[in-house]
Specification:
The chain is built from nine helices and eight strands. The protein is α+β, with helices and mostly antiparallel strands. It has two domains: 49 residues, no CATH class; 131 residues, no CATH class. A three-stranded antiparallel sheet has the order 1-3-2, sandwiched between helices. α8 packs antiparallel against α9.
Length: 195
């Protein structure tokens, strides 16, 4: 006996994800794979990638690649590093892969996705464009630690300060959690910004 699909439940799931959802999420709302295929063929759902769909009522996102990566890596994943920098519009660097921080128990291989298993504190995670993302301060420290050129880190810091996305104190607090080169780079940039 087929369960009846709960369109309202699926809508509630997708609404919190800019209209995107996975076939597992659809299944939890009572949609069989056959019904998903049917709705995709009739134009009610848009099949973005295998296993990932979007409700047609929601416009496509300019961050669709981030949504796909986030949904592929699971609810506990967080957009990070250069991808988070791009989401905040703090860099003109276009990363070749989507950077995501995942729990240590996650699978290590995903095409087009760069997985990081760094630990995140609750105060280092926020939401932007319906995506879980590292905070601006955490993002800047992550890219500084991952060898993004210093001039690009400096540009991101200056832009974030100018736009009020972070304070000097927030960035210093995050830098204090780092060691060596990353901490020194952040402090040096902040000192130069004050001049």
């Amino acid at each position: 006996m087929e369960t009846h699909p709960n369109h309202n439940h699926l809508y509630e799931i997708a609404e919190n994800q800019a209209g995107y959802f996975t076939n597992q999420q659809a299944s939890s709302a009572g949609f069989s794979r056959e019904r998903l295929s049917y709705y995709a063929s009739t134009g009610r759902f848009i099949r973005v990638q295998p296993g990932i769909y979007r409700l047609v009522q929601f416009p496509g996102s300019s961050y669709e690649d981030l949504f796909v990566a986030w949904l592929r890596t699971g609810a506990n994943s967080v957009i990070s590093h250069e991808s988070a920098l791009a989401l905040y519009e703090l860099s003109d660097v276009l990363p070749g892969e989507v950077h995501v921080i995942v729990p240590r128990t996650s699978s290590r291989r995903r095409s087009g996705i760069r997985l990081h298993t760094n630990r995140l504190r609750p105060d280092e995670i926020t939401t932007r464009e319906c995506l879980l993302v590292t905070t601006v301060a955490r993002t800047i420290c992550d890219v500084a630690a991952s060898n993004l050129p210093e001039e690009q880190v400096s540009q991101a810091i200056q832009e974030a300060l100018d736009r009020g996305l972070i304070t000097r104190e927030e960035l210093l607090t995050q830098a204090e959690r780092r060691k060596g080169r990353t901490k020194q780079m952040i402090i040096s940039i902040l000192n130069a910004v004050l001049l």
